[in-house]
Design goal:
Order of helices and strands: HEEEEEHEE
Distance between the termini: 39 Å
Radius of gyration: 19 Å
Number of domains: 1
Strand order of the largest sheet: 1-2-7-3-4-5-6
CATH topology: Umud Fragment, subunit A
Strand content: 25-35%
């Protein structure tokens, strides 16, 4: 009887863990593009969602590199954290950011797209370089920073 109860408890715990993983992601910040708010080596908790608002920090799949040669889905295995500065329907003012390599200044953000920038602009590879971020590449929004893991 005790074995059955323990098995049921373990199964329930496993199902709960799977449910939490479908909703939340923990990731480690890598690089200085979001400093000073998010430092390299820090960890953040991300809520999975396909919707983001201006001002939120988002986690999304990037293309392979500055040449934008990633797969059609944009899911190359590289995840980036950046701040949303414009959402669909927003018009980007001319001269909104330097450099504007993709030439999106003065345009309206298309449906299902975001414009993202790193908080530390001089070190950030962001929408100024690769243009709009398609909503299908969005993993979720950062809901909080987590304490550093303890080492023994």
């Amino acid at each position: 009887m005790l074995a059955r109860s323990a098995a049921g408890t373990l199964m329930a715990a496993g199902l709960l863990a799977l449910a939490v993983r479908r909703v939340l992601v923990v990731t480690t910040v890598d690089g200085a593009s979001m400093e000073p708010g998010l430092r390299s080596g820090g960890r953040v908790l991300v809520r999975r969602t396909r919707r983001a608002r201006r001002g939120q920090v988002v986690l999304f799949w990037a293309t392979d590199g500055p040449d934008g040669d990633g797969p059609a889905t944009g899911r190359s295995g590289t995840l980036l954290l950046k701040r949303v500065v414009a959402v669909q329907g927003d018009t980007l003012p001319a001269g909104w950011a330097e450099p504007d390599v993709e030439g999106i200044a003065g345009t309206t953000v298309p449906r299902g797209s975001l414009v993202v920038l790193g908080d530390n602009r001089p070190t950030s590879w962001d929408s100024r370089h690769y243009g709009y971020v398609s909503g299908d590449r969005l993993v979720g929004v950062v809901i909080r920073s987590l304490p550093a893991p303890t080492t023994r």
